[in-house]
């Protein structure tokens, strides 16, 4: 070891020290500043990227909550529309039933009225035919009974006797 340290030269030491200081000064002047600027720039870029990522994460959470709110609102709106549609359907069915019932009752009333009028017409026609038939029979009976003079006088006397009794 003495061999290595045995040849110490103060001039060489000072020269090496001056060169080292000059090297440090040159590095500080030309290399450290760009290196530190690049490191600071990189650090700022990383910070900005982290902030952007955090902001994006917050924005994604906001969007997710907004989407959930919109989805909940859409579900509520769908449910209300379905409820309204069911109510409209029930109303339409009930209206159709009541209209059908009213129409049915009206048709039944019309049928009853038509039956009654047909019945009355048939009864009137039957009465007319019965009266015509009765008149025809009475006419024939009277013609046969009143064909001679003696039966005519008997009939007139009988009728006069009935009138006096009443």
From TrEMBL:
<dbReference type="InterPro" id="IPR005864">
    <property type="entry name" value="ATP_synth_F0_bsu_bac"/>
</dbReference>
<keyword id="KW-0375">Hydrogen ion transport</keyword>
<keyword id="KW-0066">ATP synthesis</keyword>
<dbReference type="InterPro" id="IPR050059">
    <property type="entry name" value="ATP_synthase_B_chain"/>
</dbReference>
<dbReference type="Pfam" id="PF00430">
    <property type="entry name" value="ATP-synt_B"/>
</dbReference>
<keyword id="KW-1003">Cell membrane</keyword>
<feature type="coiled-coil region">
    <location>
        <begin position="46"/>
        <end position="91"/>
    </location>
</feature>
<keyword id="KW-0406">Ion transport</keyword>
<dbReference type="InterPro" id="IPR002146">
    <property type="entry name" value="ATP_synth_b/b'su_bac/chlpt"/>
</dbReference>
<keyword id="KW-0812">Transmembrane</keyword>
<keyword id="KW-0813">Transport</keyword>
<dbReference type="GO" id="GO:0012505">
    <property type="term" value="C:endomembrane system"/>
</dbReference>
<comment type="function">
    <text>F(1)F(0) ATP synthase produces ATP from ADP in the presence of a proton or sodium gradient. F-type ATPases consist of two structural domains, F(1) containing the extramembraneous catalytic core and F(0) containing the membrane proton channel, linked together by a central stalk and a peripheral stalk. During catalysis, ATP synthesis in the catalytic domain of F(1) is coupled via a rotary mechanism of the central stalk subunits to proton translocation.</text>
</comment>
<feature type="transmembrane region" description="Helical">
    <location>
        <begin position="6"/>
        <end position="27"/>
    </location>
</feature>
<dbReference type="GO" id="GO:0046961">
    <property type="term" value="F:proton-transporting ATPase activity, rotational mechanism"/>
</dbReference>
<comment type="subunit">
    <text>F-type ATPases have 2 components, F(1) - the catalytic core - and F(0) - the membrane proton channel. F(1) has five subunits: alpha(3), beta(3), gamma(1), delta(1), epsilon(1). F(0) has three main subunits: a(1), b(2) and c(10-14). The alpha and beta chains form an alternating ring which encloses part of the gamma chain. F(1) is attached to F(0) by a central stalk formed by the gamma and epsilon chains, while a peripheral stalk is formed by the delta and b chains.</text>
</comment>
<comment type="function">
    <text>Component of the F(0) channel, it forms part of the peripheral stalk, linking F(1) to F(0). The b'-subunit is a diverged and duplicated form of b found in plants and photosynthetic bacteria.</text>
</comment>
<dbReference type="InterPro" id="IPR028987">
    <property type="entry name" value="ATP_synth_B-like_membr_sf"/>
</dbReference>
<dbReference type="GO" id="GO:0046933">
    <property type="term" value="F:proton-transporting ATP synthase activity, rotational mechanism"/>
</dbReference>
<comment type="subunit">
    <text>F-type ATPases have 2 components, F(1) - the catalytic core - and F(0) - the membrane proton channel. F(1) has five subunits: alpha(3), beta(3), gamma(1), delta(1), epsilon(1). F(0) has four main subunits: a(1), b(2) and c(10-14). The alpha and beta chains form an alternating ring which encloses part of the gamma chain. F(1) is attached to F(0) by a central stalk formed by the gamma and epsilon chains, while a peripheral stalk is formed by the delta and b chains.</text>
</comment>
<keyword id="KW-1133">Transmembrane helix</keyword>
<comment type="similarity">
    <text>Belongs to the ATPase B chain family.</text>
</comment>
<keyword id="KW-0472">Membrane</keyword>
<protein>
    <recommendedName>
        <fullName>ATP synthase subunit b</fullName>
    </recommendedName>
</protein>
<keyword id="KW-0138">CF(0)</keyword>
<dbReference type="GO" id="GO:0045259">
    <property type="term" value="C:proton-transporting ATP synthase complex"/>
</dbReference>
<dbReference type="GO" id="GO:0005886">
    <property type="term" value="C:plasma membrane"/>
</dbReference>
<keyword id="KW-0175">Coiled coil</keyword>
